[in-house]
Amino acid sequence: MKYLIADTSTCNEAEVQRLLPLVPLFRREQALRFKHVFGQWACLKTWTMLQALVGRTCDDVYYGAYGKPYLEKGPYFSISHCKTAVAVVIDEEHEIGIDIESRRHVEEGLILRTMNEAEQALIAAADDSEGAFLDLWTQKEAVLKARGTGIVDDLTSVLSKNEGECVISRESWSLTFPAIDLQSLPHGTYVSIATVGSCPSVRG
DSSP label at 55? Predict the structure, then answer.
């Protein structure tokens, strides 16, 4: 497993123009469908990060039943972005998912809709309830992105933890918290990666 995370400090029109010729035509077209600079930049930046990780131009894309993108020549990959950062992860052997989120106010209704009773209790008991929510939220999204379904499941039941594993639809996923240099991760940014098999559980 390898990943890259970048902050959004280079998000501007000039950088969009610089990145455009560095990606395949289909990705350029996707980027230019966004009306705002951030959407264009994130679309282009994440693809150049993917190509840097893979070591080649990634123009061999196809899509799964739920719209998850794959590379015909591999590896498995996942992309995520938020207001403060963009992230890409790849794995040569296993399905993988990444989610990155910026700190934000969390309404109680969202907690009730997406968290089970145990998770709600954990959030309520935490010194930083919004941070606890975002930790769990990124874990759930990462698992669903690895699975390839996106947010179509009952989110309250996504994380059924058993000896460090997350069980979803009779499949075992292990959550890993990437070891990140804190100075490289923008303040107030939360990230989780989910993949099949054993991965070390560490927090940056």
Answer: T
Do 126 and 181 meet the contact criterion of CB atoms below 8 Å apart? no
Helix axes 129-147, 117-125, angle to 10 degrees: 140
* Cβ proximity of 146 and 199 under 8 Å: no
**pLDDT value of residue 163:** 45
Percent of the chain with pLDDT over 70: 82
- The whole-model pTM stands at 0.86
Q: Please write the tens of the pLDDT for every residue from 132-158.
A: 999 899 888 888 888 887 666 678 877
Question: Which residues are paired to 195 by β-bridges?
Answer: 96, 174
Strand partners, 168: 171
What does the radius of gyration of the chain's CA atoms come to, in whole angstroms? 17
Please state, in angstroms and as integers, the Cα–Cα distance from residue 143 to each residue in 24, 109, 112, 136, 201, following that order: 28, 22, 20, 11, 14
Please name every residue paired with 172 in a beta bridge, in sequence order, or none if there are none: 167
Six token digits for residue 133: 């929510």
As a whole number of angstroms, the distance between CA 25 and CA 23 comes to: 7
Which uninterrupted H or E stretch holds 63? Answer: strand 61-63
Tokens of 52: 């840097």
Domains assigned to the chain:
2-195 (3.90.470.20)
